[in-house]
Write a structure and sequence with these properties.
By secondary structure, the protein is an alpha/beta fold. The chain has eight helices and seven strands. It starts with 15 loop residues before the first strand and ends with a helix.
C-alpha cells in the first residue's frame, strides 16, 4: 500500500472530504471523482487491489489515491481511509461507492443534516421514497438485512446497507471497524448505538448499471452471518455491563 502523507491534508479544518472505496471500477471511477469534486474539497480513493486502471484514472481525475496491493474488502478499504483522516479536522466527510451506483450530485443533500448539526451520521436511503427501480431480489435481501441489523443494534433505519453516507467529526472519531467486507455498513449501526451517534436518513436515487461482481445470494448470506455475529457480541457486552454495573 502506498502512503499518503498527513501534510497532504493541511488546512482541512473547514473542508469536506469524499472517500471512495473501489475495486476494478475503471468504467466509472473517473466520472465519479470528477463530479464529486464539484461538491467536496478533497477526494480520497482507496483502490482495494484492483487489477485494472482504477487507480490511474482516479488520480487523473484529481483524487488522492491510496492502494492496497491485494483485495481485502470494502471494510478494510474504509478502515484505511478512516485511519488516514481520523486525527485530522475535516468539517465533514461523505462516503460513496465508485461503481456509479450513487449519484455524486446528491452529496449536498447528504451533507445538509451534518452541516446543520441535526445529525452525526446521515444515511442515503433507497427506500424512503419510490423504490420501484430496485430489483426485486435486492429488495428481499435488503429487507432481511435491515430487520437483522435494526433489531440487533437497536437503531432503526430503512436502508442499513447503503454505502452512501455522511459523517461529522464526532462520528468520524468512533468509526473503527472490525469488519473487512460488505457488512461494514451494518457495523456502523452498532457503533452508532454504542456511542450515541445521532443518525438521520435522506432519500437517494440508485443506478443499477453495473454487472454483478458476486452472487447476491452468497453476498446476502455472508453479510447476514456477520450481522448475527455482531448481534451476539452486542448481547454479550450488554450482559456483561448489567452483571458488573
Amino acid at each position: 500500500m502506498n502512503e499518503i502523507k498527513i501534510h497532504s491534508f493541511k488546512n482541512c479544518s473547514n473542508k469536506i472530504l469524499a472517500i471512495i472505496p473501489c475495486f476494478n471500477e475503471q468504467k466509472y471511477i473517473f466520472d465519479v471523482v470528477t463530479i464529486s469534486k464539484e461538491y467536496v474539497d478533497v477526494v480520497l480513493v482507496v483502490d482495494d487491489g484492483s487489477s485494472d486502471n482504477t487507480a490511474a484514472l482516479a488520480e487523473s481525475a484529481g483524487a488522492m489515491v491510496v492502494r492496497h496491493s491485494l483485495n481485502q474488502g470494502k471494510g478494510a478499504a474504509l478502515t484505511t481511509a478512516f485511519n488516514i483522516i481520523k486525527d485530522l479536522d475535516f468539517k465533514a466527510i461523505v462516503v460513496l461507492d465508485g461503481d456509479g451506483q450513487h449519484d455524486p450530485i446528491e452529496i449536498d443533500n447528504l451533507l445538509k443534516p451534518v452541516l446543520n448539526e441535526n445529525a452525526d451520521m446521515v444515511i442515503g436511503s433507497r427506500f424512503l421514497e419510490d423504490s420501484a427501480k430496485i430489483p426485486f431480489y435486492r429488495k428481499i435481501g435488503q429487507s432481511v438485512l435491515n430487520v437483522a441489523t435494526n433489531l440487533g443494534s437497536g437503531v432503526k433505519v430503512s436502508d442499513s446497507q447503503s454505502g452512501f453516507r455522511a459523517f461529522n467529526s464526532k462520528a468520524i472519531k468512533f468509526m473503527t471497524f472490525n469488519e473487512t467486507g460488505l457488512s461494514v455498513e451494518s457495523e456502523m449501526q452498532f457503533i452508532a448505538a454504542k456511542h450515541k451517534i445521532k443518525i438521520c436518513e435522506v432519500s437517494i436515487s440508485t443506478i443499477y448499471n453495473s454487472t454483478l461482481k458476486r452472487s447476491p445470494i452468497k453476498h446476502g448470506l455472508s453479510v447476514l452471518c456477520k450481522v448475527l455475529g455482531m448481534i451476539l457480541v452486542h448481547k454479550l457486552r450488554k450482559d456483561a455491563i448489567r452483571t458488573h454495573g
